């Protein structure tokens, strides 16, 4: 004997909605659970099915005091369905209009640009020129280091770096002179310290 198939989620929603529409009454959760079991919906699934209907605004819910009350009247469902149908019809009409506009624009473009042999040749020549331009751009990038503006920028950067290096050398010599005065008698220690940090009496300015 084949196993009994379970009730699908859609069927559960339809069966529960029948409870509301058949009676046009207002229910609390306990009543819905009892009636749902009679409709073949297991009690463990009742709250989830009910919540899905509430989330989709098919079943209304209102809390009064400590209890939640649920209802769904056929007239309300009908009004909601009609509104959705009208919206879909409006959307469909808009899509059809955009399609007609696009088809008209395409036809106009084709009429203004017939697919002639000359046009095909022109397009082929244009694509060839685009390929050549892309190649020239890549070649220019390869020779960028030789570009006069780039070379001038590198030269200016080098001059700035040279000035900065000489300025720091001035500052370091000033510091060395101050240290010799401040720590008279410890010249050898100072000389060793500065030599370890890359400066000695033979350090020269960059020309």
Main features:
mainly alpha, 71% helix, double-stranded DNA binding, Arc Repressor Mutant, subunit A, 7 helices, single chain, flat, 207 residues, LZ3wCH
Total of domains: 2
Mean pLDDT: 78
Major sheet characteristics: 2 strands, antiparallel
Q: What is the share of helical residues?
A: over 70%
* End-to-end CA span: 102 Å
Summarize the helix and strand pattern as letters: HHHEEHHHH
Q: What's the total helix number?
A: 7
- Into which percentage range does the β-strand content fall? under 5%
Overall shape: flat
Strand order of the largest sheet: 1-2
What gyration radius follows from the Cα positions, in whole Å? 43 Å
Which class of secondary structure composition applies to the elements?
mainly alpha
Count every beta strand, where a strand is a DSSP E run of 2 or more residues: 2
InterPro entries: LZ3wCH, Mnd1, Mnd1_HTH
GO biological process, one term: reciprocal meiotic recombination
Function: Required for proper homologous chromosome pairing and efficient cross-over and intragenic recombination during meiosis.
Pfam families: LZ3wCH, Mnd1
What does this entry look like structurally?
This protein is mainly α and 207 residues long. It has two domains: 9-76, Winged helix-like DNA-binding domain superfamily/Winged helix DNA-binding domain (Arc Repressor Mutant, subunit A, Orthogonal Bundle), CATH 1.10.10.10; 123-207. The protein contains seven helices and two strands. The protein has helices spanning 9-23, 29-38, 43-55, 74-112, 117-142, 148-182, 187-196, and strands at residues 60-64, 67-71. The longest helix is centred in the middle third of the chain and has 39 residues, at 74-112. Residues 16-74 form the Mnd1 HTH domain.
């Amino acid at each position: 004997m084949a196993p009994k198939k379970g009730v699908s989620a859609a069927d559960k929603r339809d069966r529960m909605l029948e409870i509301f529409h058949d009676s046009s009454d207002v229910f609390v959760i306990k009543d819905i659970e009892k009636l749902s079991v009679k409709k073949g919906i297991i009690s463990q699934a009742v709250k989830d099915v009910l919540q899905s209907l509430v989330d989709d605004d098919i079943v209304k819910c209102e809390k009064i005091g400590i209890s939640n009350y649920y209802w769904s009247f056929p007239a309300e469902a009908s009004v909601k369905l009609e509104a959705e149908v009208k919206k879909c019809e409006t959307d469909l009409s808009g899509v059809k209009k955009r399609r007609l506009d696009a088809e008209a624009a395409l036809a106009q473009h084709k009429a203004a640009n017939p697919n002639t042999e000359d046009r095909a040749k022109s397009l082929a020549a244009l694509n060839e020129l685009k390929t050549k331009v892309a190649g020239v751009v890549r070649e220019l990038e390869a020779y960028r280091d030789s570009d006069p503006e780039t070379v001038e920028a590198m030269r200016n950067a080098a001059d700035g770096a040279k000035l900065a290096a000489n300025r720091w050398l001035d500052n370091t010599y000033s510091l060395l002179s101050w240290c010799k005065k401040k720590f008279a008698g410890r010249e050898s220690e100072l000389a060793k310290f500065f030599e370890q940090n890359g400066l000695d009496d033979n350090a020269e300015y960059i020309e």
